[in-house]
């Protein structure tokens, strides 16, 4: 979470806080890595994560070797962009907070960088705490193709991606949307705009256009207008809705089932005739993700449910599952 979100949460929980040892990070890791940098920062983090995934983190500090040629190919960045970005990361620190013992620990993202020009590689030292966070960052981008991620130019678009992933993870009964005030938007994007229309023009519209190239997800948004006495209505908040593209949720049966369970709870999925009983059934998804017949109120056993999911998936791929067209 961001620093502002943490402060707000801390304020709300102050009265009921219990003495349970726990640690948290004062600033969202992504905010720290790209707040005062450009969009290449998250690409660098993403590439480093692919190396760190193989580490055991059994030492306080880990040293990794980065092959510059491989990184050029992976990130589409130039040598100078990579060097500048690593240098910027050396100027950025993460603050760890222990709420019970009331202490803070500040750790620099990259304490040591050594560039070997002749061999064309870079050696980087990372504290294990930071290394683990870097691996977690990569997990926030599971919904978007790596090629698309590396082609994105705007740091604001890169910021939106983990927000969309967070929205995607909301419980099934919660709408896939996030409402944000002007202060929340400025805090999230690291900006200081005085009006929501400025954020819409400078950030939301360009990010939406850039994500049009994504085969997996994008977003739509709606600006809330309110009247305060006389005069023109004023924009007070923005609601961002996640849009998952068919290319993603139809890519496999497993992903399709996950998508249906998260997006269509309680909705009628299909009206048909049961091939075993000859009776009409209306299939819907319960809050626990199980398939039920609306008419009889009974659930389907595992074998029958698997057959139904297969049928629904095939219908969806053929464009014949009406509920998807209505959504």
Structural commentary:
With 327 residues, this protein is α+β, with helices and mostly antiparallel strands. The protein folds into three domains: 3-139, Arc Repressor Mutant, subunit A (Orthogonal Bundle); 155-244, Arc Repressor Mutant, subunit A (Orthogonal Bundle), CATH 1.10.10.10; 248-326, no CATH class. 43% of the residues lie in helices and 23% in strands. Strand 3 (93-98) and strand 4 form a beta hairpin. Helix 8 (155-168) crosses helix 10.
SSE inventory with pairings:
Elements: H1 3-13, E1 23-25, H2 29-34, H3 40-52, E2 61-67, H4 68-75, H5 79-90, E3 93-98, E4 103-108, E5 112-116, E6 121-127, H6 128-139, H7 146-151, H8 155-168, E7 177-181, H9 182-189, H10 196-210, E8 217-226, E9 234-244, H11 246-249, H12 253-263, E10 268-273, E11 280-285, E12 291-293, H13 302-317, H14 322-326
Antiparallel strand pairs: 1-3, 2-6, 3-4, 5-6, 7-9, 8-9, 10-11, 11-12
What distinguishing features does this structure have?
single chain, 327 residues, alpha+beta, Arc Repressor Mutant, subunit A, 3 domains, 3-stranded antiparallel sheet, 12 strands
Q: How many domain modules?
A: 3
CATH class of the largest domain: Mainly Alpha
CATH fold title of the largest domain: Arc Repressor Mutant, subunit A
- What is the general shape? globular
**Spatial order of the strands in the main sheet?**
1-3-4
- Number of distinct helices: 14
What are the segments in which pLDDT stays under 50 over at least 5 consecutive residues?
15-28
| Cα Rg | 24 Å
**Mean of residue pLDDT?**
80
Terminal CA distance reads 30 Å
Helix content: 40-55%
Structural class based on helices, strands and sheet pairing? alpha+beta
Annotated CATH architecture of the largest domain = Orthogonal Bundle
